[in-house]
Amino acid sequence: MPRRPPLPTRRRKELNDLEANPVDFCCGGPKGDDLLDWGTAHASRRARAVDPRPHQVLTGPDGTAYEGGAFQLDLKFPTEYPFKPPKIKFETKVYHPNIKTDTGEICNDVLVSNWSPTLNVRYVYTTLHELLKSPNVDHPLEPEIAQEFASDRATFDKKAKEMVDKHAR
Fold first, then answer.
1. CA 95 to CA 72: how far, in whole Å?
2. Which of 62, 52, 63 is nearest to 27 (CA)?
3. Which residues, including other chains, have CB under 8 Å from residue 24's CB and lie 6 or more apart?
4. Which structural domains are found in the chain, ordered by start?
5. Could you say which of 88, 107, 110, 141 is catalytic?
6. Among this protein's residues, is 27 annotated catalytic?
7. Does residue 30 sit in helix, strand or coil?
8. 97: number of CA atoms within 13 Å, CB side?
9. Which pLDDT score, from 0 to 100, does residue 8 have?
10. What is the pLDDT of residues 57-75, one digit of tens each?
C-alpha cells in the first residue's frame, strides 16, 4: 500500500501548534488556503493591540537597531518539506549583512546548511529573530554592510534604525 505524503498534515500540525502556542516575536501562517505559501512578520505588541488579526510579521528584537520594527516575511514551502527548508525572504527592506537590501533574500547558510526534517516553522522564526539580534559577518550577502557592522557599529545602527523607521513601522 503506498504511503500518503505527510507534508500537508505536517504543515497543518505546525500551524495548529503556532496558533495554540504563539511565538511572542512572530506570527504568520498561510496567505490563503495554500499551505505551501505563508507570510510572516515580527508583530510588535503595539501592532497586535491595534489590530489583533493574524499578521505575517516578525518583530525586531529589543535592544537592537531593529527594535520596534515589524518585518513582513514570505515563506514558500517546497513540496519536499520537511526534507527541504522553506524559501524565505524579507518583504520589508532591512539593512543587515545577511539580508539582501534590494531583494530580501537571506543568506543560505542561515537555514539550508543546518536544515533537517526535525526542524519546523517555529525554528525558522526563532532563527530569523536571532539573525536580527546577531548578524553573521563571516558569511554576508552585503559585504559592505558586514564591514560597517564590524568596524563602525554606531554608523551601522544609525542606518539600520533609519531603514526601520522608513520601511518597518
1. 14
2. 52
3. none
4. 7-167 (3.10.110.10)
5. 107
6. no
7. strand
8. 23
9. 66
10. 899 999 999 999 999 998 8
